[in-house]
Design brief:
- The complex is a heterodimer.
- Chain A has 11 helices and no strands.
- By secondary structure, chain A is mostly helical.
- In chain A, α6 packs antiparallel against α7.
- Chain A is globular.
- Chain B starts with a helix and ends in a 6-residue tail after the last helix.
- Classes of the chains: A mainly alpha, B mainly alpha.
- At the A-B interface, α2 and α8 of A face α2, α3 and α10 of B.
Chain lengths: ~260, ~260
């Protein structure tokens, strides 16, 4: 376990350098935030345009909680291949997963910071004033849904080894699926049963429900149950990710296709 | 000289795009947002606002093709050292670039049709085209304007170091300000005067009008505004590109840039 943590920490350092290659404090604040805040604001305005009471607030909570969530991490899984370090990781005597997890995990911080900033700015801009006590619990939901999205990203990141060119398409599909089907923009019940069943095992679905529950003053037990389900979904994807990461690395080692994948 | 050059450039760009799935990312992904906007509208009982979802599907796809794909053409030419060959050839780089950018932005028009299909097939909201000529003219003018804007953008990105930051920073604000999904009457009053400075504003309004039975007013003026904005940005872009190439040539720094 200590070995895992050590590799994870080194992966995190690599991830931090990746992050710095993309963003400086100024470009993150004025470039990245400009993008996610305006995107979220468009959804809130769409809610206003429908003139249905509560619709704008519904979209504000959903968009803020998932603002930026899912971005970049899957692509980070493919960067080892571009840099030629992937074969070195495969032949190293340690497992592949912690290195990958460390490098990708840096983006979880980016998601959480994005969601917090989105909540703060959208509340200010749209004059939305929820109960302060309830608001204090929101970070728990945001952090949990970011971590479970990370677990799914890790799984997709392990698959992206097979087709690195698809990395950005996968990121976009993941983020769009979360916004469309996971209770971010419309209640789950709007979608057909089979789609609801899929959404139940996707990250963010239970996290967003829990956040809405906190803000609506639902019983702590019900909110806690949703948070528990969100954690369970994350663990499920983590298990899948661990299995596929090693299996794909092994398969590449067995047939000598590591350099070509 | 002109026509063979243009057709060869179109062919080349289509070949490059065919071999690079990333180039088609906006066409594959952006219309998926129609799922979100249509779901919100249908759930709220406001299927009558479906034209807004379609104007967004069109303009966000065209915008992403312009900002993210066409915007990277000059930067990619520099990295792949194609810029030297193009600068050395007797053809105008600005013209070659304009044609390549136009090919990419025209692919963005697919976003409209994909959005229309999603609205119909998934949500059973069949949006009738009330004014087909208005729609066709608007789509064509949009391609011209998006090409102009993307030309300026790719010129600026060609000079910039960190292209991604720039790309992320512009697209969201443009869509909000241009009223591609929600008309600008929902924006704060102090922001509204900026909207007509983007072609998104004129194009979004016209697309929506073409999908509603009411007569379309001031068509010439509005199409004119889209074209003028496109040509103006395109000319500035071509100017920037020309100066950039001239300077690199004069300094002998082309390969070093």
């Amino acid at each position: 376990m200590r070995g895992w943590l050590r590799i994870f920490r080194v992966g995190l350092v690599v991830g931090w350098q990746d992050f710095r290659a993309f963003w400086t404090p100024a470009t993150w604040l004025f470039g990245w935030l400009a993008r996610i805040i305006t995107s979220a604001a468009i959804w809130v305005l769409l809610g206003r345009m429908t003139q249905v009471p509560g619709q704008a607030e519904y979209l504000l909570v959903g968009s803020a909680a998932t603002a930026g969530v899912g971005s970049f991490a899957i692509a980070a899984a493919a960067w080892d291949q571009w840099e030629g370090t992937y074969p070195l990781l495969v032949i190293a005597p340690t497992p592949m997963a912690p290195a990958l997890m460390g490098r990708m995990f840096i983006w979880v911080g980016h998601w959480i910071a994005s969601a917090f900033a989105a909540f703060a700015i959208l509340m200010l801009v749209f004059g939305w004033r929820p109960d302060w006590h309830a608001l204090l619990a929101v970070p728990i939901g945001v952090i949990l849904l970011a971590i479970s999205t990370f677990c799914l990203s890790l799984f997709l990141g392990s698959l992206v080894r097979l087709a690195p060119a698809l990395r950005n398409i996968l990121i976009n599909i993941l983020t769009t699926v979360i916004v469309a089907f996971c209770g971010v923009s419309t209640p789950l019940a709007f979608w057909p049963r089979w789609l609801q069943a899929i959404a139940e095992i996707l990250p963010a679905t239970h996290g967003v429900t829990a956040i809405r529950g906190m803000l609506d003053g639902r019983a702590p037990g019900a909110v806690g149950a949703e948070l528990g389900l969100e954690a369970l979904v994350g663990l499920g994807w983590l298990a899948a990710a661990l299995a596929t990461t090693e299996a794909i690395a092994e398969a590449g080692r067995a047939d000598g296709s590591i350099e070509f994948s | 000289m002109f026509i063979p050059l243009v057709s060869a450039t179109i062919r080349t760009q289509l070949q490059i795009t065919r071999h690079n799935v990333e180039d088609l990312l906006p066409v594959i992904v952006m219309p998926l947002l129609t799922f979100v906007s249509m779901a919100v509208l249908v759930h709220a009982g406001r299927s009558d606002l479906a034209p807004n979802a379609l104007s967004a599907s069109l303009l966000m796809t065209v915008g992403q093709m312009g900002f993210f794909v066409a915007g990277e053409v000059v930067a990619a030419d520099r990295v792949q050292q194609v810029l030297e060959l193009l600068a050395a050839s007797p053809a105008s780089y600005a013209l070659v670039l304009a044609v390549r950018v136009a090919v990419l932005t025209s692919l963005g028009v697919l976003g409209f049709f994909e959005g229309w299909l999603i609205a119909g097939a998934v949500f059973h909201v069949h949006v009738a085209v009330a004014h087909i000529t208005v729609l066709t003219t608007t789509l064509l003018a949009t391609v011209v304007a998006a090409t102009g804007t993307a030309l300026l953008f790719t010129a600026l990105l060609g000079l910039a170091r960190n292209t991604r930051t720039f790309q992320h920073a512009v697209n969201g604000p443009f869509y909000l300000l241009g009223g591609v999904l929600v008309p600008i009457s929902y924006l704060p009053a102090w922001l509204r005067p900026l909207a007509p400075l983007t072609f998104f504003y004129w194009a979004a309004d016209l697309v929506r009008d073409s999908l509603r039975p009411a007569p379309v007013h001031a068509l010439g003026l509005r199409i004119g505004a889209i074209l003028v904005l496109g040509l103006a940005t395109g000319l500035i872009g071509a100017g920037v590109i020309g100066r950039m190439i001239d300077r690199l040539r004069r300094d002998g720094a082309l390969s070093l840039a």
